[in-house]
Specification:
This protein is of the alpha+beta class and 310 residues long. The protein is built from 7 helices and 15 strands. The chain is elongated and about 135 Å long. The relative contact order is 0.06.
Amino acid sequence: MSKNKRPKKSKTSSWRTINQVAAKRSSTPAARRRKLIKGLKVSCLSLLLVAALSFVGYGIYGWATQSGTIHFSLLSQPIQAVEFKTDGVLSKDWVRSKLKLSSQSSLMGLDIFKIKETLESVDQIRSAVVERQFPDTLLITIQEYEPVLRVAVQEPSSEPKVMLVSSEGVVYDGKEYPLITLKRLPYLGGVHLERSNGAFEPLKGMDVVAQLLKKARLQKPHLYADWKIVSCQRFDQREEAVWSVIKIRTSAVGEVVFKPQDFDDQLDKLDYIFRDATENRLRIRRIDLSLGSEAVVQMANRRRGQPYKS
């Protein structure tokens, strides 16, 4: 009896039995055409990127090598215009003359700090701002002191002359003011002027005096128009100086004495006395308003004053 043959065992299926060799790429005409188109697209994009980078690089190089020359050419242009602003009376012609600006001066060649220093060396000028406006304009803006008084100055080495005093006490030689403006300013008396570094020292307390003058000019212009001399001989700006007074010399009522405070009330009293004297044709020599609630009036034909009670 023959022995039964055992059936052969089949090999178990597993992922290890799968052929791992990659299939060959398709080589059909359609596949080759798609591959070619894709390659052309990548090449075009690469060329465009290189061209763009080259253009930017060339522009930067050109700016770096040539912009300096172009920029310098613009800045070296002669000044074509001088723009001038002021809160006072000085004119553009005066500024040009002071600075000696010529038509050949270049904007970049000007020393604007030197120009500012030159302008501010003029006592009338409080401050100056100088700016370049490219390509060819110079802008100058100044602030001036405003005069409130005139003062006669007599120095040993020169002829007497009239100078101006601002509310800050700055004494300066006024330029380009209309004559009518100067004639309306009262004279200042009873002060001692001192020089320092070629200029007069500012007068202390002029802000208080200027306050009286401004109130009179705005509130009582008919009184202010007659004020000739403001005397500060007995004026002291300190608050503890109870003896301090400001004297005004006028044509109509002689001398008027103010205390350096409460100007509104004193001006009202002066206005009342002036109108009363005008209506009654009285001649007044002196009015003292510095005594508080009373005003002492000295008539021209009497030695002793008569009080006006408020």
